[in-house]
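queue> pop job 88
queue> type: inverse folding (structure -> sequence)
queue> payload:
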């Protein structure tokens, strides 16, 4: 458990995990085999573990949550399969849109956050064994400013997205100083509506949760000769833009 409240950043989190610092000893003792199984789980097994985690969350009594991610992978080091599950909180019946967890809590940008996004993460064995668990950034609702906030129409939203993307400084996509980026082409593949956390200006302790839309997709860059600039990230899906649905302002989601 971590409890840190300082001027530079805050961290309230809970973690529990299988200690693999002496992995070979645990392999020799047969402990790892009890957590990681060599046979790939079928859909029924994965669904059973997903339901188990949902029940675990309910019994934690930490509010309403929605599972947003449930995927199987093979752990090469431990020699077996694992199931990763993530969940996002739900407030007033609306889920908070998952964003990539903050990597720099010490950013001094105007709208930077010094507190992790609220998130539950589990790593499970294919037969329901708990390998690791984390709960980052717990929040407490202190006030509901407006339960029926008016939001932009779809046409207004479409116009706002086009305007914002056209205003983006092309330099923000610059990867190589010696290869100037002249054109960026975006492919928007997903629009997710939900709540997003945004910092309250001049208030380091509290946040707003506002109606938002998150655009995900990929982009490619071209140089002045209209040649593709290859970075290895072409067509890798990522968050492209998060907008406040109330006033159309940009929500800073990463740092």
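queue> result:
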């Amino acid at each position: 458990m971590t409890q840190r409240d300082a001027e530079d950043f805050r961290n309230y989190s809970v973690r529990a995990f299988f200690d693999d610092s002496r992995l070979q000893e645990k392999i020799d003792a047969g402990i790892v085999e009890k957590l990681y199984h060599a046979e790939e789980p079928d859909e029924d097994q994965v669904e059973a573990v997903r339901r188990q985690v949902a029940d675990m969350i309910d019994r934690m009594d930490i509010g309403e949550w929605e599972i947003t991610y449930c995927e199987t992978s093979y752990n090469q080091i431990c020699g077996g399969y694992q199931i990763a599950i993530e969940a996002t909180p739900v407030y007033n019946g609306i889920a908070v849109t998952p964003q990539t967890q903050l990597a720099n809590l010490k950013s001094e940008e105007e709208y930077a956050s010094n507190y992790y996004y609220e998130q539950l993460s589990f790593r499970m064995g294919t037969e329901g064994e708990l390998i690791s668990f984390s709960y980052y950034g717990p929040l407490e609702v202190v006030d509901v400013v407006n339960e029926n906030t008016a939001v932009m129409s779809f046409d207004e939203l479409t116009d706002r997205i086009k305007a914002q993307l056209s205003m983006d400084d092309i330099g923000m996509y610059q990867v190589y100083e010696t290869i100037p980026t002249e054109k960026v082409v975006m492919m928007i593949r997903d629009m997710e509506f939900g709540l997003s956390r945004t910092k309250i200006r001049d208030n380091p302790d509290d946040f707003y949760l506002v109606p938002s839309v998150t655009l995900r997709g990929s982009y490619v860059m071209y140089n002045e000769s209209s040649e593709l600039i290859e970075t290895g990230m072409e067509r890798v899906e990522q968050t492209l833009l998060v907008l406040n649905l109330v006033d159309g302002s940009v929500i800073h989601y990463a740092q």
